[in-house]
């Protein structure tokens, strides 16, 4: 009995579908009109000719599938095609799904109208077939959504690759004005704006967020370190330092602010140079604008080694090398305050004075004289930053 009922339902659907095929242009007009009236995304993203043609073809293939053996049906295949195309058009997935729900309503109402006009006594049987119709359209919607997501991921991947390639060109100084304009549009950032570059080494477990402290970061990986282009807006480098401090576990270099995407190549080199002024002995964030003497040292290592040996040679060969260098460094950092130096080094202030006098005698230079202080400071940077000194 159940088999007979199922057979009758299938025959009713096939008969009704044959008549419904004649009404496809009318159904298409209704679907397109309602779809475009109720969904702005269709009006913006899909030309009306494309919308009408794809809707007509979808209805034709979907209704024809009811008349065909399962292995001949193309409704799911066509739904996948529509899903991919709508992803390429930039139509939101929600809009695509709403169109399938609307198509299910219009198609089902079409079946009711045909059976009601031609065989009203069979309406109860048609109602029992509702699950067949709705399931078929739901299967198409699922196939369209899956194809949409796959295509969207493909497009997103290609878009990211393109954006990363342009960002790399900017950071490596290979971009001309035309690339800068295209990159600005792709990155959705101003071509002329305030930017800085950060270079650092982050542990693998550390998350690299795009927004830190209200600043936008665009991260790129390199073999030995990572770098980020930072859109500064009206923020200062002090704000940038505070933003990255929680995630920097080692050393980091920060470039000065540059005034546009075209200057990112220079900013990247300056950030790398700033990072080279860090010893790595402790977590450290180096701003180049506050490390210029040290940057000069690392830029000219041979000259810096000559400076170190010429200025601090006797100290470097002394058995007291470590103590004297630490005292000199603290003296310069504390601007000649023996009390502060003694507090830092845990010794008496007279001990500090005695060590400074020994340094003066050994080097022939006094840290209280400006020119001598510059030479001593540069020589100390050379000893600190150049391992063979």
Automatic annotation (TrEMBL):
Tell me which residues make up the PucR C-terminal helix-turn-helix domain: 324-382
Q: Which range is the signal sequence, renumbered to this chain? A: none
Q: Which InterPro entries match?
A: CdaR-like_regulators, PucR_C-HTH_dom, PucR_C-HTH_sf, RsbRD_N_dom
Q: Which Pfam families match?
A: HTH_30, RsbRD_N
- Residues of the RsbT co-antagonist protein RsbRD N-terminal domain: 25-162
Protein's recorded name: PucR family transcriptional regulator
**Which organism is this protein's natural source?**
Planotetraspora silvatica
């Amino acid at each position: 009995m159940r088999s007979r009922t199922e057979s009758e339902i299938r025959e009713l659907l096939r008969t009704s579908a044959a008549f419904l095929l004649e009404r496809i242009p009318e159904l298409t007009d209704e679907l397109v009109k309602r779809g475009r009236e109720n969904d702005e995304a269709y009006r913006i993203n899909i030309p009306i000719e494309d919308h009408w043609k794809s809707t007509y073809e979808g209805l034709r293939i979907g209704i024809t599938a009811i008349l065909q053996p399962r292995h001949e049906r193309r409704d799911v295949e066509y739904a996948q095609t529509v899903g991919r195309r709508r992803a390429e058009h930039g139509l939101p997935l929600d809009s695509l799904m709403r169109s399938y729900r609307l198509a299910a309503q219009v198609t089902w109402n079409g079946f009711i109208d045909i059976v009601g006009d031609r065989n009203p006594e069979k309406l109860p049987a048609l109602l029992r077939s509702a699950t067949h119709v709705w399931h078929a359209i739901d299967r198409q919607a699922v196939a369209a959504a899956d194809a949409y997501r796959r295509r969207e991921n493909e497009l997103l991947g290609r878009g990211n690759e393109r954006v990363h390639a342009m960002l790399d060109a900017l950071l490596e100084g290979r971009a001309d004005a035309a690339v800068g304009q295209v990159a600005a549009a792709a990155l959705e950032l101003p071509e002329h704006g305030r930017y800085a570059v950060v270079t650092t080494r982050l542990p693998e477990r550390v998350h690299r967020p795009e927004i830190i402290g209200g600043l936008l970061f665009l991260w790129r990986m390199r073999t030995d370190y990572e770098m980020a282009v930072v859109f500064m807006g009206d923020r200062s480098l002090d704000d940038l330092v505070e933003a990255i401090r929680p995630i920097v576990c080692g050393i980091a270099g920060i470039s000065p602010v540059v005034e546009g995407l075209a200057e990112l190549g220079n900013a990247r080199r300056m950030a790398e140079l700033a990072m080279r002024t860090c010893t790595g002995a402790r977590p450290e964030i180096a701003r180049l604008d506050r490390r210029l003497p040290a940057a000069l040292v690392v830029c000219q290592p041979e000259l810096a080694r000559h400076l170190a040996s010429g200025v601090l040679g006797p100290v470097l060969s002394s058995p007291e090398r470590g103590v004297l260098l630490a005292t000199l460094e603290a003296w310069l950092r504390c601007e000649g305050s023996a009390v502060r130096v003694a507090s830092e080094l845990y010794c008496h202030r007279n001990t500090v004075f005695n060590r400074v006098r020994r340094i003066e005698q050994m080097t022939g230079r006094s840290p209280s004289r400006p020119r001598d202080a510059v030479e001593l400071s540069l020589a100390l940077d050379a000893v600190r930053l150049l391992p063979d000194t």
